[in-house]
Each structure stands twice: as C-alpha cells, then as structure tokens.
From TrEMBL:
<dbReference type="GO" id="GO:0055037">
    <property type="term" value="C:recycling endosome"/>
</dbReference>
<dbReference type="GO" id="GO:0005886">
    <property type="term" value="C:plasma membrane"/>
</dbReference>
<dbReference type="GO" id="GO:0005769">
    <property type="term" value="C:early endosome"/>
</dbReference>
<keyword id="KW-0964">Secreted</keyword>
<dbReference type="GO" id="GO:0005615">
    <property type="term" value="C:extracellular space"/>
</dbReference>
<dbReference type="Pfam" id="PF00405">
    <property type="entry name" value="Transferrin"/>
</dbReference>
<feature type="region of interest" description="Disordered">
    <location>
        <begin position="1"/>
        <end position="75"/>
    </location>
</feature>
<dbReference type="GO" id="GO:0006826">
    <property type="term" value="P:iron ion transport"/>
</dbReference>
<dbReference type="GO" id="GO:0019731">
    <property type="term" value="P:antibacterial humoral response"/>
</dbReference>
<feature type="compositionally biased region" description="Low complexity">
    <location>
        <begin position="45"/>
        <end position="63"/>
    </location>
</feature>
<dbReference type="InterPro" id="IPR018195">
    <property type="entry name" value="Transferrin_Fe_BS"/>
</dbReference>
<feature type="domain" description="Transferrin-like">
    <location>
        <begin position="139"/>
        <end position="465"/>
    </location>
</feature>
<feature type="domain" description="Transferrin-like">
    <location>
        <begin position="473"/>
        <end position="548"/>
    </location>
</feature>
<protein>
    <recommendedName>
        <fullName>Transferrin-like domain-containing protein</fullName>
    </recommendedName>
</protein>
<keyword id="KW-0677">Repeat</keyword>
<feature type="compositionally biased region" description="Polar residues">
    <location>
        <begin position="8"/>
        <end position="17"/>
    </location>
</feature>
<dbReference type="InterPro" id="IPR001156">
    <property type="entry name" value="Transferrin-like_dom"/>
</dbReference>
Length: 548
C-alpha cells in the first residue's frame, strides 16, 4: 500500500500479487512483514538509544534519509509530510487466512445407564452448534433499490449452489440510500456495502467509524488499477471552458462523491470554502443542477434537473435516474445539463462505438478542451476506486474477503453465463461497478483516511471545517513521557506548537501520512519506513559541536 501517489502496479504469482517498492510504504509502517504483507503484532527496536546526547540541530542534506537504509544516515531526524500531487494509498491484494487451532479429539466411555442421555445431549448440542454457526458464516449485504435487492438475491442463490453448506453465505438487507446502509452497518443490522471513495471516507469518520476491507480494481488481472480520474464532460461544439460555467446547467453523480462533487469543488471554488458554504456557492454558480442526495428543501436548485418522480426526485439511490456516474452522463446525453462531472471511464462504459466518443470533449483546468481519451492530461484530480466497507470491530472482514474472493472465482469477468458479478441487466452498477475486473483485499490496518490518501482527505477536511492555522505545527509524540515534554515545549512556543500522541512510532508515521500530525523525531532505523510513506527529513540532530 503506497502513500506516495504513483499508479498501483503489481503482478500476480500463483494468484497473489507481489507488492511494488511504493506499495511497501505503509505496509512497512502499519505492521508489515519483510515481504511487504501485513503481519500481526511485533515492533521494531530503535537502532540507537533515545538518551544519546545531542548538541543541536542542523538542516538535513537534500535527499538524505530517502534511500534504502544504507550509508551514513543521521542518527535522529525530524520528519514532516511531503505534500504530494496525487492522492491515494493503493490497496494491495493480500490473501490472509485465519489459522484455527485444531482441538484434539477425546473419547469418553460413559456408564451404560447414562449412555442414551449423553447421546441425546450431544445431539442437542450439535444441533444448537449448527444453528449458532450459520449466522457467524453469513454476510448481510446492504442494498439501496429493488433492482439491487433482486441482484443480491440472485447472488445469494448462486453462491449457495457453488459453495459448501457451511458457508460463507450472503443474505440481503434493504435500505433507501448508501447513508442508511452505513448507519445499518454501524448498528450491526448489516455487514457490508460497496461505496464510492467519497462515501468511503464519510463512513470512516465519526460517528460511523467503518473501514474499507476490499477494493474493486479495473484494468487487467496482471496489471490491476485502482485509480480513477475525475473529468468534466461536455458535448462537442460547446463554446465555454471550465472557468466559464457561471449560469450553465450541471449533472453530478451525487453529493459527497469524488468526481461528482468534492474534486469539482476544489477546482471551481476557493480552497478555504467550508462544506455548507461550498454547497451554497455551487448552487449559485449553476442555473440548475441535478445533485442526487442534496437536500431539496434547503438547496432546491441542486435538485432542479433531476428526473425522479415524486419523493424519488433527487433521491440518493438508483430510484433517481440521474444517480451515479452513469446517471450523471445520461443527464448530459438527454440534453438536460451542459456539463457532467464523472470519472474518466464513464464515457467509454456508456458508449460502445468509438465514433460516439468523438461527440464529447473534456474541460481542462487550463481553460482548454481535449478529446475524452486525453483524461491523463485533462482532469480534475485522482481518486481511488469503489470499496466494500465493514465495521472496524467485529466487522467480519475475513469472511467478507472469503465470500468475494470465491465469488470472483466463480462469477467474475468471463467466468459464468448464469450469473455475472460485474454486470447489471436491470440497471447500472448494482452492488458493484460494472466496469470492475475483480477485487483486491485491503490490508487490515488501512483505514479510510489512508485509503483515499492525504491530498484527498486534506481537501475534504478543509471543506468540512475550514483552513487550519498554517503557522502552527502539530508534533507527534510517542507514549506519555514524550507527550509531557512536548506539552512543556508547547507552553513556551507562543502557540507555534501543539502536541498529539500515538502508542508507537509506526502509528505516528501513519498519523503524519494521513495529515493528522505534521512532524516527529525518528531514530535512523525508521527513516527508510518513513521515506517509503512519503515523509521527508527536514532537520537532523547535531552530535559534534555548535559550529555548522
């Protein structure tokens, strides 16, 4: 899993991808073994004692500390986050298995008079055990429409046909929106749902505290890709540019979606816009919009162009015809909107003929237009693929992976004609996106913030709570004693320093990577790990003299 922002790249060997150098970044920081795969427990000893006398600080030499841990490294370095252009720690496909202890069999000889009673008791206990075991092997999948519920039922029936009786099984739970599904999972009324990246982040924040456990990938099995470009699509011949959208009509995938909402806001509005003000400002820019999930009562213009009937108008589900990326593009195709904010694959997914692609253009941040296949040069930003979320504690993540891994083996792309996991005959992107090629397991310690990446998370947080003081440094301290000293430092810093604490060095590295802290001091042994996670050295302790 990489926090450095380069494209996901891995190769499968015997069904298991090999992590690239970049992927080993937060795997190392978040408890990874020497091969780059997650491990349980364990810690890395400090290479030098914390009590080594330091006589001062000097600026670290450029590039120092970014290597592979070899050479003359400074003993302790102060690190901060390197602000990277593109977000995204990319999920890696790990194939972990639960190791169950096999209990020894015990033979017991019963007296003849109690044998029958014992047999009855064993039969009852066995029956009870079977009854109790079934729920433990069942994943309750949350659906948001009748068509999704129908596909979920078919999914369940087909999995029962190919899997043994002891599971894993899938049952279906119906709610009215993804937000309601998130609440249902939090309340232990459901176990899993697939969400767009913006909603993955929403689900990972309080009070929900869910975590991504499985990610969709596109591309090919040998070169799986987990990044998408956000693009602004217009009809060919449109005479306006991205900075000339005032008074135009817009189509969005949904409120809180990456390409449909957060990334366009980052381009069209000032960087210090908070969420409520940003929503109101977006309503002022366009003469009319369809933004599914928006509040019709508070922002009627954001629902003005939606096509749902009655209470389904602007609904946060497929009951609204213009919901999702395919729905936003349909809004443009129908001539309802002038511009659609979608992901780069949307045009190709919905238009089979290449000649039809030429009927649309992309609006670029430099106020130019480009063909739809030039999305790498003309886009609004990067964001990760859809992911399945579950509870952070007791979330059945191993069972969910077992279920989906078996499902993609039997019903993935080109696997079956009876049931197809990545197809929606009665809609679009039901349960999973139709363009997905398969699933990758997300490492257990990766939360929603790491999944979307620092850049994406920081941008959305600014919209939620405004811009923080750029002159104040948030220092990460390890354990109570460092926190006490840090607080003493903060008290005499004149407000230039604040302190936060984590339980381990790895946790502090992760906190800086996620933007929850700004800096920390590291022993040389952790420099390599921090460098893999996108952190850079800015100061080094001086052990020689006060002269520089």
């Amino acid at each position: 899993v990489s926090a450095a922002g380069s494209e996901f790249a891995s190769t499968r060997t015997s069904g298991r991808p090999t992590p690239s150098r970049e992927q080993r970044c937060s795997l190392a920081a978040l408890g990874a073994g020497p091969r780059g795969w997650p491990r349980v427990g364990g810690s890395v000893a400090r290479s030098l004692p914390r009590s080594s006398p330091a006589r001062g600080l000097r600026r670290a030499a450029p590039g120092r500390g970014r290597g592979c841990g070899e050479g003359d490294l400074p003993k302790r370095l102060t690190l901060r986050s390197r602000r990277i252009r593109h977000p995204h720690p990319y999920p890696s496909a790990t194939h972990s298995r639960l190791l169950r202890r096999r209990e020894p069999r015990v033979s017991v000889a019963y007296p003849q008079r109690t044998m029958r009673l014992a047999i009855y008791a064993l039969l009852c206990a066995g029956t009870l055990g079977l009854c109790l075991a079934v729920p433990g092997k069942t994943v309750r999948w949350c659906t948001i429409s009748d068509h999704e519920a129908s596909k979920c039922s078919s999914f369940s029936a087909n999995m029962k046909r190919v899997l043994p009786a002891d599971g894993p099984h899938i049952t279906c739970v119906k709610r009215t929106s993804h937000l309601e599904c998130i609440k249902a999972i939090m309340a232990n009324e459901a176990d899993a749902v697939t969400l767009e990246a913006g909603l993955v982040l929403e689900a990972g924040l309080p009070p929900f505290n869910l975590k991504p456990v499985v990610a969709e990938f596109h591309g090919s099995n040998t070169e799986p890709q987990t990044l998408h470009y956000a693009v602004a699509v217009v009809e060919k011949g449109s005479d306006f540019q991205l900075k000339q959208l005032q008074g135009k009509k817009s189509c969005h995938s949904g409120l809180g979606w990456s390409a449909g909402w957060y990334l366009p806001i980052g381009i069209l509005l000032p960087s210090d816009s908070v969420e409520e003000a940003a929503t109101a400002e977006m309503a002022k820019i366009f003469s009319g919009s369809c933004v599914p999930c928006a509040n019709r009562e508070v922002f009627p213009k954001l629902c003005q162009l939606c096509a749902g009937k009655g209470t389904n108008k602007c609904a946060c589900s497929f009951q609204e015809p213009y919901f999702g990326y395919a729905g936003a593009f349909k809004c443009l195709q129908d001539g309802v909107g002038d511009v659609a904010f979608v992901r780069h694959m949307t045009v190709f997914e919905n238009l089979a003929n290449r000649t039809d692609h030429d009927q649309y253009k992309l609006l670029c941040p430099d106020n130019s237009q480009m063909p739809v296949d030039k999305y790498r040069e003309c886009n609004l930003g990067l964001f990760p693929s859809h992911a399945v979320v579950a509870r952070n504690v007791g979330g059945k993540e191993d069972l969910i992976w077992e279920l989906l891994n078996q499902a993609q083996e039997h019903f993935g792309k080109d696997k079956s004609t009876e049931f197809q996991l990545f197809a929606s005959p009665h809609g679009k992107d039901l349960l999973f996106t139709d363009a997905a090629r398969g699933f990758l397991r997300i490492p257990p310690k990766m939360d929603a913030k790491l999944y979307v990446g620092y850049e994406y998370f920081a941008a959305t947080q600014h919209q939620r709570r405004g811009v923080e003081d750029p002159q104040r440094v948030l220092w990460c301290a390890v354990d109570h004693h460092e926190k006490v000293k840090c607080d003493e430092w903060s008290a005499v810093s004149g407000g230039a320093l604040q302190c936060t604490t984590e339980e381990s060095t790895e946790d502090c590295i992760a906190a800086i990577t996620k933007g929850e802290a700004d800096a920390m001091t590291l022993d040389g042994g952790f420099i390599y790990i921090a460098g893999q996670c996108g952190l850079v050295p800015v100061l080094a302790e001086n052990y020689r003299s006060w002269s520089y």
